[in-house]
Amino acid sequence: VTFGRRAPRNGDGRHIDPSIGLLEGEGSQQDVPPDVAASEGSAPFAVWEGVPSERPRPADPTYYERPVLKEPVWIWAVPAYFYVGSAAGAAAVLGMVARATGGRDLAGLVRRCRWIAATGDAIGTGLLIYDLGRPERFFNMLRVFRRTSPLSVGSWILAASTPLTATSALLSGENGLKGAMADIAGAGAGLLGMPMAGYTSVLLSNTAVPVWQEARRSLPPLFVASAMSSAASLLDLMHLNGREERIVHRFGLVGKVGALAAMTAVEGDVHRVEKVGGALREGLAGGLWRAAKGLTAASLGLSLVPGAGRIKRQSSAILGTGGAILMRFAVFHAGKASARDPRATFHLQRTGA
Amino acid sequence: VTIEGLVGGAKPTDEASRRVGFFTDTTVCIGCKACEVACKEWNQLPDDGLFFTGMSYDNTVALGASTWRHVSFIERPVPLPGQEAGGFSWLLMSDVCKHCSTAGCLEACPTGAIVRTEFDSVYVQPDICNGCGYCIVGCPFGVIDRREDDGRAWKCTMCYDRLRGDMEPACAKACPTDSIVYGDLDELKERAAARVHELHGRGLTDAYLYGADEATQPGTGGVNAFFLLVDRPEVYNLPPEPVAPSRLAGQAWRSMAASVVAMAAVALGAVVSASKARRS
Q: In this predicted model, what pLDDT tens digit does every residue of B182-206 receive, in sequence order?
């Protein structure tokens, strides 16, 4: 490893005299704004009140109530990607199945599935790059393949899926060689759509964050069922023929029922340890979780009302979309809250992970 | 593209490689923070802001992107075993990256920026890291962090540059009481076991080693920077049973596989049943 030699800067928090110091240390590459030293006087959290040793020692001590884990640094773009990426995956799967087993009358559904998949992959890639600390280095994601890292596995799936979904969408409706290419790309996209719809649940549960780790068995069915509901809701906002409507209705119905059942299963998993479950019950995450449940249930109820009105279909679709999006944000914020709570980690490990 | 974990391993098998680490004996730490200062100075790390926390003498708070050694100050309302005067005792501990045998950060890193060095330490290559943040949730100790203004993840390098020059890490060099000892892991473990034995003999029966081997810390396979503690790990802000997340990932992958196969089956069922409904 070679380190660049450059003139030290003043006021970067290093307190090195530029006339006698060279920046060659392993931490010297940390880019720091020149006004970093301005953060004096106030801690970024409430100052500890009272004499530490005068407090009675609790049965489950912590270190001044400070977190033991680091809070996830991800921003809104990550849960937003969870939604669009999984909706794209489920749409690609439905498109592949409809193309392979349906007739000519499903051409419209196949085309719309392919466009949802292509748009979702493209937007999802953008969101993931936007979230990086160094977006210009996004291509380093394809430097290695690491099977122990669901993020590495997922990056490769997304990188393979994006050109396939784009090809299948752009060439959709063409005849001859172009049509065959679209079908082959669509089949590949459909196969990759299966992990696309669910790998983000593994990405979350493969962490040290207690609430995500505890949901490792129930989070995948939740994300996959929600992906089905998401894709069906998007299709329900579009024009479909009678048979296509029935297909999307059934696909979405199973998705919504599955999502509600899986949400109950997630609650059962994380509430095994009270401090772990608290992250999903209280605060911002708790509110988002209950709202997601309510919207999904309302969407399910509305889609079970007899009749085939366009307004009914689209209202149910909007509710379903809202439920799916809020669910991702609820899980995301629950993880942040869980990482902030040292007792979530301590209690979970004391009761056996 | 390197396919890690499929062909070969991430660990160098070079004959010149050594397994080195830190043994931090908290019973002789005096809380001078020379390790914190030596680390900052040698590595030329910026400060994290200078502020007052009220947490005893600890205004460093935690390990972070620019803080690679952190001394904890624990004021206990209970005496140590064998302590004769007063109902109060100090616990002081210099915390550091554990350089785990099964390292959550390394296993999570999708770019290959985090590598296992010839010294068996875990090292982040700053010219590779793209700041995805996945290592941060992968670390069961809450060590590695991203510096927001820099955009990349940083942590203790075990003074990789000094090790390459046959010098001990700056923190161990600066420690005036040898609370921080650097050396070959096998020797460190012998020394640590002897120290625990000695303390037990002197009545400090609470003394034990944290993270020294796979038997006592199976979740990480043992760590290369281990500690001698005299109270529960939680008191020092250490997880009692840390687990590298990948050890539990199989359950999630299997659950996902079953779920997506079910999704494809439902898609098939929806398409086929809708066509039947049309014919009838």
A: 999 999 999 999 999 999 999 999 9
For B208, the token pair is 């034990």
Tokens found for residue B124: 């982040």
Chain B residues within an 8 Å CB radius of A138? 130
Inter-chain contact B77–A68, Cβ cutoff 8 Å?
Answer: no
User: Tell me: the pLDDT tens digits for A225-267?
Assistant: 999 999 999 999 999 999 999 999 999 999 999 999 999 999 9
Q: Does A10 touch chain B (CB under 8 A)?
A: no
Q: Is A53–B88 a contact, with Cβ atoms under 8 angstroms apart?
A: yes
For residue A4, is pLDDT > 50?
no
> Biggest alpha carbon distance in chain B?
91
Alpha-helical regions (H) of B19-65: 34-43
Q: Which residue has the tokens 């909706």?
A: A87
The phi, psi pair for B208, rounded to 5°, reads: -155, 165
In B, which residues are within 8 Å of A70 by CB distance?
136-137, 139, 142-145
Position B206 scores a pLDDT of 93
Does the predicted model carry a pTM greater than 0.90?
A: yes
CB atoms within 10 A of CB A336: 18
**DSSP codes, B139-196:** -TTS--EE-TTT-SEE----SHHHHHTT---HHHHH-TTSSEEEEEHHHHHHHHHHHH
Task: Compute CA distances A199 → A12, A138, A146, A153, B2, whole Å.
Answer: 41, 19, 14, 9, 22
Buried b (16+ CB within 10 A) or exposed e, A52-80: bbeeeeeeebbbbebbbbbbbbbeebbbb
Partner residue facing B256 (CB), from A24, A202, A243: A202
Q: What is the mean pLDDT of chain B?
A: 92
Residue whose C-alpha is closest to residue A233's, from A163, A326, A127, A104: A326
Nearest CA in chain A to B6: A147
